[in-house]
Design goal:
2 copies of one chain form a homodimer. The first copy, chain A, is an alpha+beta fold. Chain A is built from 11 helices and 8 strands. Helices cover 43% and strands 18% of the residues of chain A. Chain A has a 6-stranded antiparallel beta sheet with strand order 5-4-3-8-7-6, sandwiched between helices. In chain A, strands 1-2 form a two-stranded antiparallel ribbon. The first copy, chain A, starts with 9 loop residues before the first helix and ends in a 19-residue tail after the last helix. Chains A and B meet through helix 1, helix 3, helix 4, strand 3 and strand 4 of A and helix 1, helix 3, helix 4, strand 3 and strand 4 of B. Chain A binds a DNA duplex through helix 1 and helix 3.
Chain lengths: 276, 276
DNA sequence: CAGAATGTTCCACTATGTGAGACGATGTTT
DNA sequence: AAACATCGTCTCACATAGTGGAACATTCTG
């Protein structure tokens, strides 16, 4: 893969890139393996890894000489999920939407050029948080992805569209940028997006953007179904509930982001109270 | 000014420190606020923040001029949780232990000097993952904390003990390093640790370390109860189940860490491009 | 035991990040 | 309204901090 390098922010960028690479392996990775996927010289990579280990972002198993993601990430992510993601605020609305429609519900946010699912309701099974939330998917061929792109800032779009892989998962996948831009215009006009089996055969969905009261893109919300059990028209009937939920989430966000009167809080060093 | 983090490795260390700081606020933080808690000059902080935003680790809300943790962390943490933490492997064992004992069960790992809970079973309610796992707690006054410290490498201990706050949560809290070292020796001899209302009044627990087959410390496992409903003796009766579960987890880990013959099996959900 | 992998360390070079201070844009006080 | 205060942004001379080629050490492999 060609080394694209628009903004390769310095040392920190490289270090975080390495983190991603380690995450990319589904297993502990060795130095030599990482060397091939990161484009970095051995010595540089080595130092970076040492730093990351010392920082607790990675762990190093001296027996197998492998690097794996560190638990510090879990702690950070806990904070990220509760603070920055829509998930905690949207929780109740997802629950209700899921109960009302009986379908699978997804809440997503844009993570760079990709779609990141931050919460999910399966029709039946209870949430299995980390194994569901935290997943990434393509933006150009999913309902939430297109819904979000359609309402993203133009500057974001210009940065993000060229990064789409446009891989043709199914015959109906949109495979070039021009067609996608056209589709996005349509979505912007309609206010909602469809996934017409573009990512996975047999899987369809309706999605709407979650927009702040000021109109800024916060995330996306979708209802998914399979062609065997429902149709696009059937899903469209649920649209009012979907948009209502998106609106409700936006209102909750507005209510939470503003009343930030509370003072400096505790010393960051202190540890929150958790029972053992 | 307290040297909060371990020896702050270079630029990357500073950047990650900033991340922690932002996480430390329970809300979006402003530049000036961060400037007070990180010991960094304004301009330096500013550049770091820019880098982190550009990297997707933070988000910047131009309206309120605040920084919050970015969703990229959630993605990374998903990988961290499934790969590096014991949680996915231990899941079934936690389930069984919880079912057998009926008590609250915790699975933890050491995150630097603190205890990080990676999974939990409440007596009744189903898992509420993110609101439970991902939390940190003190090591010197919790069951899992002491169990893990007792079986940690001496070098780890030397680094980590001085970082304990030794705050006296209750009358029975161990409040100095010497006493803790003694307790740890006892725990090492016994093979298990008690929390005798050391962290929270009325809350007691038994904990054992989870050790790899080669004897390396992987994590800690505990059963918690309240003094009103059970006693230390009562909890001790559950010890066989606890140690059995810890052993079973260790075996699963060994089984999973070794068969690493398979190459990058699936085309895992599109690995995002780093340099872009 | 040669040979080829690996992980680790060294060190001269300079690219990178540094931080005091200047700037302009809001918002607050007299 | 003018004077003041505060905050985010930007600049620039400087040296720290990161770089990467190459040598070294240490295991696997044939």
């Amino acid at each position: 893969m060609t080394e694209v390098r628009p903004p390769g922010d310095g040392t920190v960028g490289k270090a975080l890139g390495v983190l991603d690479r380690v995450a990319g392996f589904g297993r502990p990775a060795r130095l030599a393996e990482l060397q091939t996927v990161c484009g970095l010289p051995k010595a540089t990579l080595y130092r970076l890894l040492q730093t990351l280990v010392s920082q607790g972002m990675l762990t190093h198993d001296p027996d197998t000489q492998t690097y794996a993601l560190g638990v510090r990430l879990v702690r950070l992510a806990h904070a990220a999920w509760t603070q920055s993601s829509l998930a905690p605020l949207a929780r109740q609305h997802l629950d209700r939407l899921s109960a009302e429609t009986g379908d699978t519900v997804h809440l997503a946010q844009l993570d760079g050029a990709h779609v990141l699912y931050v919460d999910k309701r399966n029709a039946r099974r209870p949430v299995d948080m980390f194994s569901q939330a935290g997943r990434v998917g393509p933006a150009y061929c999913t309902g939430v992805g297109k819904a979000m792109l359609a309402f993203a800032e133009p500057s974001v779009l210009d940065r993000v569209l060229p990064q789409q892989s446009f891989h043709g998962f199914t015959p109906s996948t949109i495979t070039d940028e021009a067609a996608l831009r056209q589709e996005l215009a349509q979505i912007r006009a309609d206010g909602h997006a469809f996934d017409r089996e573009e990512h996975e055969p047999g899987i369809i969905c309706v999605a709407v953007p979650v927009l702040s009261l000021r109109g800024r893109l916060l995330g996306g919300l979708s209802i998914t179904g399979s062609v065997t059990r429902c149709s696009l028209d059937g899903l469209t009937d649920e649209l009012p509930k979907l948009t209502a939920a998106a609106q409700a989430i936006a209102e909750d966000v507005a209510a939470w982001r503003f009343p930030e009167a509370e003072p400096a809080s505790l010393a960051a060093n202190e540890v929150p109270n958790v029972r053992s």
